[in-house]
Every structure is written in structure tokens, then in C-alpha cells.
Amino acid sequence: GAASNTRVAYCFHDVDGYQKIGTYTGNGSANGPLVETGFEPAFLMIKNTGISSAGSYWAIYDNKRTPSNPRTTILRANSNAGDFSADSLDIDFLSDGFQVKGTYDAVNDSGENFVYLAIAAPPETTTPVLADSFNIKTWTGNGTYPPDADGSDDITINTDFAPDFVWGKVRNDNISHILIDSVRGENKQIHTNSTDAQDIRDPDTKPNAYKFLSNGFSVNTWGNLNNAKDYVGYIWKASGSTEILTAGSLDSLASINDKAGFSIVKYTGNATAGATVAHGLSAAPQFIMIKNID
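Given the sequence above, the corresponding C-alpha cells read:
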């Protein structure tokens, strides 16, 4: 898209015992790399940085869809496909990290470099270390269409905190990833697997397609997270409010959870080399996802 378009950025940096961004080198062996994170992962996303072939996708693992080792089921952030399982994708979650046991290019291509984002859960529970910052939920939509205006056909996913960013995906069909956040507005969805601009659900004609609540979020069939399908959702808490950041050469709007090393940033480019955007975190982000929303 044009350099002057508006973008959203999801920024992450390391937080001891909770979140780790790092790299490892594949060996192509079933006795693959041991990667130390300092905690047992609840969420793990991996990308082979050295190839652009079939195995170049972003592989997402979690402890809800696969609650025990080996973790064999992934979603692909750059694909609309549902759950995909194969022995060649095996990964074990360990008390202080993970071991890659699959031999497929996407997770363990010999000699290639891999980048990962890991978020924690204590070994005795599936609740994340920072319970007010991140959660993983699964649900089945009711598919009621059109939904009743009184909200009786909406379903609510309880996260035990007020979310600011939800990344949802159908597990059993080829339907796009859905990302909503409080900075852009809860009625605006984007996709990791598409270059399309954000899709705005008119609140007058398609009310409450997605709605952030004090303890979770609700969805109906005016959106894409309540079809009669099985879903997984990755849910983050930022600050619950939006502030203006002027420290960069481009002003931005942001919602920030520095304790969890996470912020949501919205900015408009100016087509000028060297432009800077403030992220609001106390440390430089080590992993940033940016999406053109125009």
C-alpha cells in the first residue's frame, strides 16, 4: 500500500518469566533444538526467516487446542486454513522452554534461522502468569443469523479482564484470521492472511459484531467469530484507554501495557525515509506486527 496509508502495529518486548522473543537454529533432526525461555509456553509462534517456499508460514501453537505434548496442531497466521496437524511439526512445551521435535522446514529446517514469540503459563495451570494481560480461549459459535437486535443471540467469551486486542480464528474451516482492537475500534476487523484494508462493520446496520466487555468480549454473526464453527482466540490486555504519543516524527495513538511488554499503536505514514513512531514501552520492541489498514 501507499507509504502515507494508516497502519496498526502490535509491539512486544521481553518480560522475564512471562514473554520471550528469540531465535534458534534448526538441525533437521527429531532431536531438535532445545530453546530456553524461562517459563512453560502457553502460546508459541515460529517463523523460518530463511525461506519463502511452502514451509515459510508463521506456525502458531497453544496449550488450549493441544493441551499435552507433543504439540502437533498449528494455525498459520499467513493462511486462512484451519487447524493443521502433522508429526513433522511436533514441539514439546517444557517447564522452562520448548523442544522442536518435528523436522519440517517450517520449524526445523537444518541450518536455517527461526524467530519465535513465546508467552507463558505456569506448569500447573493454563492461566497465564500475568492473568490480566493475556489469555487463550476456545468456543463454538451458534451461527444465528441475522442476530436479534436485543443481543440475545450474541455469545460472550469470558477472559477475566477487559481485552484490548483479540486475534480469533476458525479452527475447522478455511476462513480468514480476524483481528480487532480497541485503538482502531471494536467494529473494525483486519486479517493476517490478507492484504485487504480493514473491514468496518457499520454499528447501525450490523450492531455489536464484536464488543469489548469488562471481563471479556461478545460476538454475533454480523461479524466472523460466531458462525457455527469451532474457534480459538488469543486475547491481550493493553491499558484500556488510548493516548496520543508525540515522541516520534509521526504522531500516534496507543494503548500500552508496559508490565506485559505489549502495546497497540496506530499511525499514518508520511512517505519519508527515517520516520519514527513512538510505541510507549519502556524498552525497545523486539517483535512488531504491522498491518496497512487502508
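The mean pLDDT is 94. Try to locate this feature in the C-alpha cell string yourself.
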